[in-house]
Amino acid sequence: MNMKTIYGVLLALALALPARLAAQDDAALYMQQAGGSALLYRGHRAYGYPSPYNGTYYWTSPLFRTGSVYFNGKHYDDLLLNVDAVRQDLLVKTISGRDDKVLNAEYVESFTMDGHRFLNLRTLYGSDAPAGYWEVIYDGKAKILKQVVRTLMQDLEGNMRSEMGYDGEYKNGVFNIFVYSAKYCYLGEDGTITPIRRRSQLMRFYKDRKREINRHISKQEASGMIPLEEYCVQVVKYAETR
């Protein structure tokens, strides 16, 4: 190796050193700012989806909401959270606001987001429980849980706009679309989890009061049949408060 080459290598190393030290300083500052929450930000970056597309892959919208997480046995407050409803990933925005990190679901028991409570059933009740995150839409002795699911599909004919479940901008001529669907579960007082796809599946828990409950629901449906979600909430709420 001649002197000219050696000089070039040394110069490159000298130029790289300040940048490396600056990066180390930035990392140290970041960990200092994160404080006790630093563990939350060690996850991998949120998955990036192909664009352009219509709809959203988030639970409701791309806007991150203030919330708290019970993670690895500790409670963390004042976080900016969202849920990737395709992958069922809980996302936290980093302190810098530039990145979104995925919280390891294995350590997430529950969280709140914009005042709504969510449960990770597998962490709480074992591997036989339904996967993903579930919003508590009725919280009593028994609970009604809802999971939002987003599925990336192709809409070549442009006929699936009504299936987005999202009020954001719709781009004409875009063929990728995230389609909305929802799942529901009944979480009994004893921890039993039952998927609810039909009304009859919920009424099995209230056979002795079926006639009374049906009369109540008939009044609610005087102007038309209510959706399954509202039906589930109405039934359990009525059964537990009468």
How would you describe what is shown here?
By secondary structure, the chain is α+β, with helices and mostly antiparallel strands. The chain has five helices and ten strands; from the N terminus they run αββββββαββββααα. A ten-stranded antiparallel beta sheet has the order 4-3-2-1-5-6-7-8-9-10. The chain starts with a helix and ends with a helix.
Q: Secondary-structure map with pairings?
A:
Elements: H1 3-34, E1 65-71, E2 74-84, E3 89-93, E4 100-103, E5 108-113, E6 116-120, H2 121-125, E7 133-139, E8 143-154, E9 176-187, E10 193-195, H3 199-203, H4 210-220, H5 228-241
Antiparallel strand pairs: 1-2, 1-5, 2-3, 3-4, 5-6, 6-7, 7-8, 8-9, 9-10
Q: Cα-atom Rg, whole angstroms? A: 24 Å
The biggest beta sheet reads: 10 strands, antiparallel
Instruction: Kindly state the number of beta strands.
Output: 10
The portion of residues forming beta strands comes to: 25-35%
Mean pLDDT: 87
Which H/E pattern describes the elements? Answer: HEEEEEEHEEEEHHH
Q: Tell me the distance between the termini.
A: 89 Å
- Please mark out the parts with pLDDT under 50 across 5 or more consecutive residues, or reply none: 3-35
Strand-pairing-aware structural class = alpha+beta
Number of helices: 5
Compose a concise summary of this entry.
The chain has 242 residues and is α+β, with helices and mostly antiparallel strands. The protein has 5 helices and 10 strands.
